TrEMBL record:
The lineage of its organism: Eukaryota, Viridiplantae, Streptophyta, Embryophyta, Tracheophyta. GO terms for cellular component: membrane. This is Receptor-like serine/threonine-protein kinase. Residues 1-24 form the signal peptide. It is an enzyme of class 2 (transferase). The keyword Transmembrane applies. It comes from Rosa chinensis (China rose). GO terms for molecular function: ATP binding; carbohydrate binding; protein serine kinase activity; protein serine/threonine kinase activity.
Length: 786
């Protein structure tokens, strides 16, 4: 029975449960004008005992968090952060100003953010202090707290801290990403205490997986002895959430909603080097979450396993599946094989088999049920069904349930009675019976590779020798490329009369092939070529010619006669993306989305799918052409290979075009495929906003850097300003779509190449198969335009 006291004594009741030190708290005043700078070995503002500190903590490659942490243990455990979703760069600083404001200034944007919101908060502020409870406060002369970090928890509460109505703890996204993640712990206005999954990346609740439904909950108290309990407004204890440890002597404590969705009560003996779990809720997160919308505890197609002894959960992928994101195990899994075809003319059943998994299930999402069925019948039914990804067979009840992709709520647990039959392609199996086939497959692949190299060598030799004997022969072919004579191309372009475009190293002319039914072509005439090594030119042309993708401009042939070196491409009837985006008529939103995705897929092919990796080095709207259906086709890929290394550099000694050049060029750092990702991010911003990223010809008062402006609009929630520039209201499918594309672009143009996603992940984000987390803050991009 709850113990009740008069409401007039409620405040006293709460105070009596807190240690006297929280009432007469000792502190070290932080005076006006004090500041801290984000550095690798920066200073901090410590509590009197030194057990807690306030300052900047570096979190991997993401940047710095303005945080509070345990400072006397080897693991500097963060318990609060002011900017968890937006880490700042090195050199940023926090200042306690003369006005009593606590201000964080990111050096990347130069804009200050008030940590303690509300102008009225600052009236009467006399000092700031880091307390021994782990609470950072702004206080008056008589020690009344006008603002305190305890009132704005992130994922952790500490002894003496309370959680008030409508307050929440948000789990961080991953073990190393501190931004708000997929789970929240809330004391709702109705008085219920709940654990929810959220509709990530939004904060709205999705599935309730633990709750205390009292209807009268008022506060969650974490007292000094280690008990965490829910009280009513009159002070009566309604429910003990987490019990106190056996002993609280020489022990640090915290309660944290971890990134796996479990609320854990941790203790850390001061004589040891690590935290241990004392108790936790729910008892088993893998079985607690059964979402109707969403992937469950570990994401779509994954499996959740709970270790009761270690109070730990882990996520894994079944055989034939791989993680979508190696850095985020709860982002789910994807098939690592081609799914079964549904074409009736193509029977693929012989290419598939089943992996049997005991104690495994993906609850929900069944689309067919058969009873009575034996295991073999269940397998055959799934095998004959192209929609079937797995079947769950229960021998006791002779049930067979079929499920399709994506699979939700996957779990491995002893109480699961069914047997999961996971359908995979046979060549993904590593079972003993397939090892012989796998060896034969590898041997066959090696033989094919050797033969392929031999054929290429022979072709290169024949082309070279033939060209030396008769360089004007028009029928020499290299990997389906035609070797044109210079006179042929001069005639096709009517003496290079109609110019389509001009760059630093080449001029493009429109032509017509009379010998090919009047087919239009684009002839690129190189200005600066490799004259001393014709074999190298042919080898590189051959490498470009072997590429074949619907989002690349196809190379049809070449000419290599002394000083005349030309490349012959398909003609793109709708010109360049630059003309399309920046002309008088605004292209519609759906077409722009199509172009953005097509460009990303073309880059994905160059980076990961063609026979030899190609880094474009000059992605910009002028090098993205549009065919008659406005499909994006990347041009000029590999052309830099045909130029001398010193000829592919601008006057600033970098490849590419100002405004699209990745920062590593300026720092003489190794160049990787991430330079193309950066350039793509700049192009994506232009596609979204229909304006150039920089316009030096504009009047000084109208000049602006698109990335900086777009990022400011994004941070200030003023995305409508970006859309007003486009004027496409009827085509717009929600402002959240615009925000999604901006977030992808901001990830792409991060200064640190390691932080940028691969173009594969960019493509997945555009397709909607990968969730988009909040991007880190941007550095100023002005350096490119100086």
């Amino acid at each position: 029975m709850a113990f009740e006291i008069p409401y007039s004594l409620c405040f006293l009741f709460v105070l009596l449960q807190l240690p006297f030190s929280t009432i007469a708290q000792s502190y070290n005043n932080i005076s006006f004008g004090s500041y801290l700078t984000a550095q690798e070995d920066n200073l901090s503002w410590a509590s009197p005992s030194g057990e807690f500190a306030f300052g900047f903590q570096k979190v991997g490659n993401a940047g710095f968090l303005l945080a509070i942490w345990f400072d006397k243990i080897p693991e500097r455990t963060i318990v609060w952060s002011a900017n968890r979703n937006n880490p700042v760069q090195q050199g940023s600083r926090v200042e306690f100003s003369a006005e009593g404001k606590l201000t964080l200034t990111d050096i990347g944007t130069g804009k200050p953010t008030n940590i303690a919101d509300g102008q009225s908060t600052y009236t009467g502020v006399a000092y700031a202090a880091m307390l021994d409870t782990g609470n950072f406060v702004l206080a008056t002369r008589n020690s009344t707290y006008l603002w305190q970090s305890f009132d704005h928890p992130t994922d952790t509460i500490l002894p003496t801290q309370t959680l008030n109505l409508n307050s929440s703890l948000f789990a961080q996204l991953t073990a190393t990403n501190y931004s708000e993640g997929r789970f929240k712990f809330t004391l709702e206005y109705g008085g219920s205490l709940t654990l929810y999954t959220v509709n990530y990346p939004l904060k709205s609740p999705n599935f309730l997986y633990w709750s205390i439904e009292t209807g009268s909950g008022f506060q969650v108290i974490f007292n000094q002895s280690g008990s965490i309990y829910l009280i009513a407004q009159n002070g009566s204890t309604l429910h003990v959430v987490l019990e106190d440890p056996v002993s609280t002597q020489d022990v640090y404590q915290r309660a944290t909603l971890d990134y796996d969705g479990v609320l854990r009560h941790y203790i850390h003996e001061k004589s040891t080097d690590s935290w241990s779990t004392f108790t936790f809720i729910p008892p088993n997160i893998c079985t607690a979450i059964v979402e109707y919308t969403g992937g469950g505890a570990c994401g779509f197609n994954s499996l959740c396993t709970h270790d009761e002894d270690a109070a730990h959960t882990s996520c894994s992928c079944p055989l034939g599946y791989i993680p979508i994101d190696q850095d985020d195990e709860r982002n789910g899994c994807t098939q690592n094989f081609f799914p079964q075809s549904c074409d009736k003319a193509s029977s693929e059943t012989e290419h598939f088999e089943f992996q049997e998994l005991q104690f495994t299930d993906w609850p929900g999402g069944d689309y067919e049920h058969f009873q009575p069925f034996n295991k073999e019948q269940c397998k055959q039914s799934c095998l004959a069904d192209c929609f079937c990804a797995i079947a769950i067979f229960n021998e006791g009840s002779a049930d067979c349930w079929k499920k399709r992709i994506p699979l939700s709520n996957g779990k491995i647990n002893d109480d699961v009675k069914g047997l999961a039959l996971v359908k995979i392609r046979k060549d993904t199996s590593t079972s003993a019976k397939e090892k012989g086939s796998l060896v034969r497959l590898i041997i066959g692949a090696v033989i094919i590779l050797v033969l392929n190299n031999l054929v290429v060598s022979i072709i290169t030799y024949l082309v070279t020798s033939h060209a030396q004997v008769n360089p004007l022969n028009p029928v020499v072919r290299v990997m389906n490329l035609k070797c044109f004579t210079f006179m042929e191309l001069k005639e096709a372009t009517n003496g290079f009369e109609e110019e389509l475009g001009r760059g630093a190293f080449a001029t493009v002319f429109k032509g017509v092939l009379a010998s090919d039914n009047g087919k239009f072509i684009a002839v690129k005439r190189l200005n600066a070529v490799v004259k001393e090594n014709d074999l190298e030119f042919k080898a590189e042309v051959s490498a470009i010619g072997r590429t074949n993708h619907r989002n690349l401009v196809q190379l049809l042939g070449f000419c290599n006669e002394g000083q005349h070196q030309l490349l012959v491409y398909e003609y793109m009837s709708n010109g360049s993306l630059a003309t399309f985006l920046f002309g008088e008529s605004r292209p519609n939103w759906n077409t722009r989305k199509k172009i953005a995705l097509g460009t990303a897929r073309g880059l994905l092919y160059l980076h990961e799918e063609c026979s030899s990796q190609i880094i474009h080095c000059d992605i910009k709207p002028q090098n993205i052409l549009l065919d008659n259906s406005f499909t994006a086709r990347i041009a000029d890929f590999g052309v830099s290979k045909l130029l001398k290394s010193d000829q592919t550099r601008t006057t600033t000694r970098i490849r590419g075009t100002k405004g699209y050049v990745a920062p590593e060029w300026f720092k003489s750092l190794p160049v990787t495929v991430k330079v193309d990702v950066y350039s793509y991010g700049m192009v994506l911003l232009e596609i979204v906003c229909c304006r150039k990223n920089y316009e030096p010809e504009a009047p000084a008062e109208d000049q602006m850097i698109l990335a900086d402006w777009a990022y400011d609009c994004y941070k200030q929630k003023k995305l409508h300003l970006l859309w007003q520039n486009v004027g496409d209201d009827q085509e717009m499918d929600g402002i959240e779509k615009l925000e999604k594309y901006l977030m992808i672009a901001f990830w792409c143009i991060q200064e640190d190449p390691s932080v940028r996603p691969t173009i594969k992940k960019v493509t997945q984000m555009l397709e909607g198969t990968v969730e988009i987390s909040v991007p880190p803050n941007l550095s100023s991009l002005y350096v490119q335009y100086k």
